[in-house]
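Title: Prediction job returns without error message
Component: structure pipeline
Severity: low
Priority: P3
Assignee: unassigned

Description:
Job completed but the reporter wants confirmation the result is attached to the right record. Sequence as submitted:
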Amino acid sequence: MNAINDLWPEARNKGVLRLVTAGSVDDGKSTLIGRLLLDSKGVFADQLSAISGSRYSRAPADALDLALLTDGLEAEREQGITIDVAYRYFATPARKFIIADAPGHEQYTRNMVTGASTADAAVLLIDAARAQGGELLPQTKRHATLAQLLGLRHVVIAINKMDQVQWDPAVYQRIRTAVEQLAQRLGMDTPHCVPLSALTGDNVVQPSPHMPWYAGQPLLALLESLPLDRDAAAEQGSRLFVQWVIRHEGSTTHAFRGYAGQVQGGPLRAGDVVTVLPSGETAQVQAIQLGEQALQIAAAGDSVTVVLDREIDVSRGDLLVTGANSPRVAREFEADLCWLDRQALNPARWYWLKQGARLTQARITAVTSKRDISELRTVPHDGPLASNDIGRVRLRTRDALALDDYDKQQSTGAFILIDDASHQTAAAGMVRLAN
């Protein structure tokens, strides 16, 4: 079940905030998203009618089970849990939103990584009733660690189910103190903390009359005010992985040769000098096309076709770059891996490595450390990584790659490893050139 509300077209030029929600099972993620959709008028009447008659509803007879708005799979509704990442779209007069609803089970951590990989912000839920003594659950620590590892700039802690602790400010303060200590140990900026009840709607869209002691913004107003600052990536210059080489009219004098891909980082302009990596050849951008429209400037996120002023060797998977901060071309580098496969890392094997549109093979030559999620520290480690482990490794690839540090440029700093036998995603990787 999905919806784009009436405000989506009107909010076309107001920016998009991509966010991922995460939390332990039964922390109320799906209910919170359902509440946001309902109270921001992002649900159609026929959708409300559909969930009101659902046989899987767990809400009281006179209430809607808002989790059913996001749990679209039959198995999700039957078990009352989220299994797959579900994307929801809605808009307010201030901003457009794309929400990735990630599962809470540890076995589905890979889905949380998938949802967070393209997000600007994370909303991590904490069940106030389960953490009222200030002890955070392991999944909260795991999700906060992943948010820090993936470089999410904004982290919002939604302290949910405040109605079940009688709106007690002491409970909120104990959890907030624990969150601040967690952030300090992870080296994160202090997250925003919002006490709320997704079930009753308190502090989700409207301020709560039950918590007059809370002086901050409700969740939606806070999300509308988060800055969309992507300057760090823009400063690195433009990056475009060639996804397709387009040719028309063969070898005639009017033959067309263009390179299709999505612009990342800074803008790409007609007249820019681009370097093709890994070959190192240079050329000038003669024209940029977005569909049939000619552009002088293509912004990050635009899927365009680039025409160069001369014929050089450019193939699918090559990278066109501009700017003084050119990626490093290398076959050996360090990276953080979040191991997602049920089969442990095997250093004797080669894995497929996919970076943008480039595909090559890679082998892990060493595991140097691992994150201890319980103690929130990095410990020396030279063994294999098991499912959901996070570790620092060294890799060697068969072909040279153009690499940026993940913290500076995610499009060329991120990659996945693929098991060549099962074709499952084995790991998500973040390139670490700076340390």
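Comment from assignee: result matches the submitted record. The chain has a mean pLDDT of 85.
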